[in-house]
Inverse folding.
């Protein structure tokens, strides 16, 4: 089976759009459609339900997606091993991280890695860091960057790169609500303090635990996706938020908000790399993993 067709299938399964998938792959939508039909003919199964408006994976397509990702990973591993023996690594590595992570510490890491391994193509995808683990677990990415959960899932490797405190923030200057300070904040004051909170994720869980530990119920003004959105809403004076300090340090709105000396402090974020343990057998991924250790030293 042609590995190019497997890559095309995976790309289409992730985008569910022939035009966008073809653009990412450098082929026309018609060529992509023809290759997918050829793949379906080889398998004797329909992989996609498609019409003029939508594309969706069939049950067979979902099963084949797991195989395709695994097969491509194994192909890359053996190719990398053979190339390693020849003295120079070739191939590609895909990375998932937030926009903040991409320019806070990934830039330097990628610069060093590309200098040492110029024949390796790096594919960088950005998005919500809360998806960092799932993107690696489902083989969508080789490596992702995110915060380490309290319990690391089985089969997942983690390498710490940085530690970032979780901090309470509010807009600078006057706001129409009480701001928590060094002294113990009364329950009544917290009731009057609107909170801008993440919809889900590690920061939200730790903030929920913090409120429960203080025997408080937060007054939630808004629940949003993404730490940058929290900084934005806080800067407009809508409420108090909690974000990793690394996000605030790299935000263009950093000068519009202030840190609040809330006690007790929230547990800090441990930020680092995730990959599947079995993928560390790939010389390319192992090389990147090693470079990350050098960069964080």
């Amino acid at each position: 089976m042609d590995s190019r067709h497997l890559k095309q299938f995976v790309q289409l399964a992730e985008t569910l759009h022939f035009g966008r998938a073809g653009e990412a792959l450098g082929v026309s939508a018609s060529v992509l459609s023809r290759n997918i039909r050829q793949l379906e003919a080889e398998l004797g199964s329909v992989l996609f339900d498609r019409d003029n408006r939508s594309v969706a994976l069939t049950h067979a397509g979902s099963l084949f997606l797991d195989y395709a990702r695994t097969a491509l990973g194994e192909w890359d591993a053996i190719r990398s091993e053979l190339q390693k023996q020849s003295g120079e690594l070739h191939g590609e590595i895909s990375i998932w991280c937030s926009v903040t992570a991409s320019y806070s510490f990934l830039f330097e890491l990628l610069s060093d890695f590309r200098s040492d391994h110029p024949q390796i193509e790096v594919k960088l995808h950005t998005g919500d860091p809360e998806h960092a683990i799932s993107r690696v677990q489902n083989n969508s990415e080789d490596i992702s960057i995110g915060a380490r959960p309290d319990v690391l899932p089985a089969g997942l490797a983690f390498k710490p790169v940085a530690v970032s405190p979780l901090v309470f923030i509010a807009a600078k200057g006057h706001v129409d609500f009480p701001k928590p300070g060094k002294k113990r904040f009364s329950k009544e004051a917290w009731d009057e303090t609107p909170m801008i909170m993440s919809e889900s994720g590690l920061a939200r869980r730790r903030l929920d635990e913090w409120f429960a530990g203080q025997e408080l119920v937060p007054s939630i003004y808004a629940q949003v996706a993404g730490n940058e959105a929290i900084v934005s809403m806080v800067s407009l004076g809508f409420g108090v938020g909690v974000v990793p300090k690394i996000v605030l340090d790299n935000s263009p709105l950093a000068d519009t908000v202030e840190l609040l000396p809330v006690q007790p402090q929230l547990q800090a974020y441990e930020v680092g790399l995730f990959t599947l343990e079995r993928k560390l057998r790939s010389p390319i991924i192992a090389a990147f993993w090693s470079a990350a250790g050098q960069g964080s030293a």
Summary: The chain has three domains: 1-87, 89-162+270-297, 166-267. The two ends are 43 Å apart (CA to CA). The longest strand covers residues 156-164.
